[in-house]
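lol ok so funny story. i was supposed to be doing the assay writeup but got distracted and ended up predicting the structure for this chain instead. priorities right. anyway since i did it might as well share w the group, maybe its usefull for someone
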Amino acid sequence: MTAHVETLEFQSEARQLLQLMIHSIYSNKDTFLRELVSNASDALDKLRLEAFRDKELEVDTSDLHVALDVDREQRTLTVRDNGIGMTRDEVVKLIGTIAKSGTAEFLRTMKETRDAAASQDLIGQFGVGFYSSFMVADKVTLVTRRAGAAEGVRWESTGEGTYTIEPVADAPQGTSVTLHLKPADAEENLHDYTSTATITQIVKRYSDFITWPVRMAPEGEDDAEPTTINSRKALWARPRSEVTDEEYTEFYKHVSHDWNDPLETIRMQAEGTFEYQALLFLPSKAPLDLFMRERKRGVQLYVKRVFIMDDCEELMPEYLRFVKGVVDAQDLSLNVSREILQQDRQIQLMRRRLVKKVLSTVKTMMTERPDAYSTFWSEFGRAVKEGLLDDFENRDAILDIASFDSTHDAEKPTTLRQYVERMKEGQEHVYYMTGESRATIENSPHMEAFRAKGLEVLLLTDPVDEMWVDSVPGFDGKQFQSIAKGQVDLNSDAEASEAQREEFAELLTWMGETLGDAVKEVRLSTRLTTSPACVVGDTHDLSPTLEKMYRAMGQELPQVKRILELNPEHALVTRLRTALAETEDRAGLADTAELLHGMALLAEGGELADPARFNRILATRLERTL
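and the output, tada:
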């Protein structure tokens, strides 16, 4: 009976990615083998774990390995494993499509990137290593059978937009990927991947630490037994002096599927009542899915060097989701589940220590490797600040490694420690303002008096800043104070302030009544020097930006009334006060009050309740001046 062969089309995004791979200009195509061996290693890990958990699964796990076969005459290279394998549906899902979030954004960025190295970085961020086979092959054939399944499947494609898939009755358990290699002279920088010496060199460079044996028969000896060509030594278990930086780098790329070098390597070893080893990495570039809900996070968990799971979320908090690496525990059960991990006291203890180690490492980077720290914070600072909302135990440590834009230096962010050291004598607060951009904040009327008095203000423009500033009281004994909320008294002359309030009392009362429900209160301001008015929030009010964020998420909120502050030194305000005292017909002055309030809203980037009415009043006033 002839097997039924189907011809299917790649998902459109996968088709575009294949073309990028096939026509790529990467200088180092050897990394395709690292990706295939890494995939094979993952399949072996998953089979061992599945066999341990499912005692009824009839599989032989006595000799799990990766085999490499070359055929010089046919110009093929085969990477074979006897791991978990795939069903037909899994092949279509994992290879026929890119089951990754953010694919469209990835492809858009790829097309905009002309630099080859930068393009390579992007591909690594999406973990699409299988597609790299088409950098060196004209055709790829995959044969696989899921462990426990009776029938296998063959997948084949030239990468031109379609692939064929058919059932295979006698497929061995596991997966084999056969690359029908391009001609050796097709490109100047294409190595001869039918050379066992070349293959051995690549494996030792990129995959030497794989815990499973990678075997290949010696060249020219058809009947010879395959030999293991990788050392199989777990890097986290070897002494630091025996591991090179290059080995750490390749191991990082193996566990993270990133093509960039790591920014920092972190080693930990805990001994005593609870033993574990950890090898963690801080990436040098944020993945494109860092802020996507569907992303996976967490480090790999091993128990006594036996792989347990990828993406162990219980070992790393959400705000450190970019940390990659391995944790190898000695005292956990091999049958541990995610539900058990959530309640396990030892896991919780490990998590606390791992978090503290990561944060202390960043703290050390600030002083010893400031350029590396700057890279880290620019890539991951926005995510790290999320920890200020829920990790109360490490809140001070997070604040200590945070950097913010400020009015002190337009080019270089400042730490809170540096801000406190620069505070003026008698200054009690760390002043800040949130907003959509640095320019918006710097041009805000709220900044005027602080600029005039030389007081430094933190400029907080990340969306997460709107959330944490209200829940974190201060730093190093200094309270945080928004310059756009509450009372900010920068006038040292109390008697003069009281005299001004009495002088303007009638105006303040009248404007409060005139503006009615549009404002909560009208009062004099000490934060203005050149603008006639500004609007501010009460101490515990939501900021306008945060209010917009909640409404954009579909949350209904009651109207937040703002406070209108007047500049008692501004000619418009003083003349309005005089006019109010000298006329009995105050109806005509009400338009001026509305204009003042509307101007204050616009100055902070706010929205007018009735733009058409504001324009009519403004046009009428301008007409009278001509």
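The domain at 403-483 is CATH 3.40.50.11260 (Rossmann fold). The two ends are 96 Å apart (CA to CA).
back to the writeup now i swear
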